[in-house]
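C-alpha cells please, single chain.
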Amino acid sequence: MPQDEEDTPKKTKAALKQDRSPWLTTPKPIKRLFDRFPLVTYPANELPQIKHIERSRNTLYIFALKGVGRSNLPSFNPSCLKWQTYLKLMDVDFVTVPSSNHASPTGSLPFVIPASSTTEASTLDTVTPISSNKLADWASQNGHVTKQESENMRYDIYMSLLDHRIRNGWLHTLYLVPANFNAVARRLYIEPSTSSSPVRYALSNTLQAAALAEILRSSTSPVVDIDALYRESDNAFSAVSELLGDNDWFFGEDMPGLLDAAVFAYTHLLLDELMGWKTAEEKLGEGLREGRWKNLVEHRRRIYEKCYQ
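Here you go.
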C-alpha cells in the first residue's frame, strides 16, 4: 500500500541543502554578478522600415558609409559596386541606402526593393526584394538602355576569373593582411557595426575565418600559398587586360556591360585612395599602380566618369 504524502517525513532546509549536488549550485561570484546585472531578454529587432518616400524610387541596399549612401559615391564592396555600377550603366532610376548582410532577406548584399506607388509604410516582410542573382534580368526590364549582354563564349570564362582568382586575391588582401585589415576592413565593416570591443573582436575573427575558408575551398592545399594566390590574380588581370585590348569596352561593344561593371568594381577599389590601403602590403593592386595594365586603368576612368561624375 503506497504511503500517503502526510506520512512522508519532511526534510529540513538544512537537509535539503545538503542533498543538492555541488554542480547544481551557482558559484557565489557568478550569482553576485547576475544579481547585480540580471539577464534581460530584449524583443527581436524589426526588419528595416521602407517608408513611402523611399518606395517612390527603386532602392539599392549596399555596403556604404552612413551619411553618404544616398550620394553618388561608389560602394566600398566589390559585389555591391558591380551592381551599383551596372544599374547606372543601364540607366535604372534608383537611390542607394547603406545596409548590412544582417538586414538582407537573402543574408547578403546587394538587393533591390522595387519602386511602388503605395503610400503605406512597409517592411521587408511585405515586399519582394530583388536579390543579386536576379538583378541583371531586372535591370534589363527597368532600365532606359537597351543592352544585350554579350553571348561570346568567353564571357563566362572571364567572369569566372573575377569571381574566383581575383576575388581570392581581394579576400586575402583585405582580411588576411594585418596592415590592411586594421586600416581598411576594421574601419569599413567592423567599427560601423558595433561599439562593443568584445563584439568587434568576435566579428573580426569571424570575417577572417570566413575569408580563409573561401580561399581554401578553391585550393587543394590545407594552407594558403600566398605567392601562388597573387600570381593567379595577376594572371587573371593580365588576361582581362588582353581581352580589353585597345577597345573602350569589353568584347568591342559600343557600350559597357556587366563585365565592364565587374572589372571596374575591383580596379576602382584597388586604386581608390579613399580606401586607405597600406600599399606596401597591397600586392593585388601593384600591377595597376605600376602601369602593367594601363588599359584597365583607363577603363576604370571611363566608367567612373560615366557613372559617378
